């Protein structure tokens, strides 16, 4: 299969027929073998009913997964990645702000230019400058600085992946913003971007919220730590713990030697005594945290367990 189009959605009943027709037209024009995977993230409107009806009209290409409740975009993408069978996987939003006309170009960059992942860059946007564009620029700048991946738009829903990439990574929590970072930490180094069209929203309402940016920076700190030390937390906590304990231990030894050399010198009334003692306690706690982290990292069941109410076109 040439392409899997993975589309997470929440309450997008109005746009689904038009989006499906558009994708099908592009697939036919280019002679691609394909599947369209709709992942309904707990919609409360008629989205699943429409997906079921669309599948009746095209059972060969249209497939769907319906969550029993809303889990978030990361969960939807993770389930879509597991189900996808295409050689190249394209993700896009269901609100018609991503153009299916970009699909052939994204696919060519994966196959002809041998990229592992290509992220869309909506260079010209039709969003509110103050509430979306400016915060997005700050968010992307911080992510570039921390990750070392020089993309302009990490959060663009329109992306293309080599099949091996989506089968090798795990997306959870709200980490969909950082899929390029996750891919990099998984060893996929050739990550590029393509300028894509950004269309004004035609139907429905935005799912955007300002808390996304607060959560986004917290997730960035988390994914950076997990990427570097997720498999070896003792290396992080143990190093800092050993340093802290060592500083405290040296301070206490110095004070003891000073007390032996001059018995008149007070030991417990000196600030260095309490600083050294505190450093030793903190060091011991950090070392213990690293040890517990090692135990937890070896066994974390249920992190990506979601209640799927129904599937169509899938085993």
Task: Explain the overall architecture.
The protein has ten helices and eight strands. The protein is α/β, with parallel strands linked by helices. The mean pLDDT is about 85. Helices cover about 50% and strands about 15% of the residues. Helix 9 (about 235-260) packs antiparallel against helix 10. The chain is elongated, with a radius of gyration of 25 Å.
Mean pLDDT: 85
Order of helices and strands: EHEHEHEHEHEHHEHHHE
The total of helices stands at 10
Class from secondary-structure proportions: alpha/beta
Kindly provide the radius of gyration, computed on alpha-carbon positions and rounded to a whole number of angstroms.
25 Å
**How would a textbook summarize the main sheet?**
8 strands, mixed
Distance between the termini: 17 Å
Spatial strand arrangement across the major sheet = 7-5-6-4-1-2-3-8
Our estimate of the beta-strand percent is 5-15%
**Low-confidence region ranges:** none
Gross morphology is elongated
Query: How helix-rich are the residues, as a percent range?
Result: 40-55%
User: How many strand segments?
Assistant: 8
Provide a brief overview of the structure:
By secondary structure, this protein is an alpha/beta fold.
Write the layout of secondary structure elements.
Blueprint lengths: L2 E7 L6 H15 L3 E7 L6 H11 L4 E6 L5 H11 L4 E4 L11 H9 L5 E5 L7 H19 L11 E4 H4 L12 H7 L5 E5 L15 H19 L3 H29 L9 H27 L10 E5 L3
Parallel strand pairs: 1-2, 1-4, 2-3, 5-7
Antiparallel strand pairs: 3-8, 4-6, 5-6
Helix pairs in contact: 5-8, 9-10
């Amino acid at each position: 299969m040439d392409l899997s189009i993975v589309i997470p959605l929440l309450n997008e009943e109005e746009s689904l027929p038009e989006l499906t027709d558009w994708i099908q037209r592009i697939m036919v024009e280019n002679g691609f073998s394909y599947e369209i995977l709709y992942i309904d993230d707990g919609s409360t409107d008629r989205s699943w009913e429409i997906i079921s009806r669309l599948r009746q009209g095209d059972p060969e290409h249209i497939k769907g997964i319906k969550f029993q409740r809303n889990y978030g975009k990361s969960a939807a993408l993770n389930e879509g990645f597991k189900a996808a069978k295409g050689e190249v996987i394209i993700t896009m939003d269901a609100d018609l702000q991503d153009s299916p006309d970009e699909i052939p170009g994204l696919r060519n960059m994966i196959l002809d230019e041998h990229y592992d992942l290509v992220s869309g860059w909506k260079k010209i946007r039709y969003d509110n400058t103050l509430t979306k564009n400016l915060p997005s620029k700050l968010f992307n700048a911080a992510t570039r600085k921390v990750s070392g991946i020089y993309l302009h738009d990490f959060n663009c829903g329109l992306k293309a992946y080599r099949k091996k990439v989506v089968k090798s990574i795990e997306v959870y929590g709200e980490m969909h913003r950082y899929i390029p970072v996750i891919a990099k930490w998984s060893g996929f180094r050739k990550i590029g971007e393509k300028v894509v069209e950004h269309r004004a929203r035609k139907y429905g309402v935005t799912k955007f919220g300002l808390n996304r940016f607060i959560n986004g920076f917290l997730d960035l700190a988390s994914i950076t730590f997990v990427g570097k030390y997720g498999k070896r937390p003792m290396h992080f906590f143990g190093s800092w713990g050993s340093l802290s304990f060592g500083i405290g231990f040296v301070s206490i030894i110095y004070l003891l030697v000073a007390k032996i050399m001059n018995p008149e010198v007070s030991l417990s009334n000196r600030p260095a005594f309490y600083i050294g003692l505190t450093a030793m306690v903190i060091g011991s706690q950090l070392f213990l945290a690293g040890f517990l982290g090692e135990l937890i990292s070896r066994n974390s069941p249920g992190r990506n367990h979601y209640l799927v109410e129904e599937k169509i076109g899938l085993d």
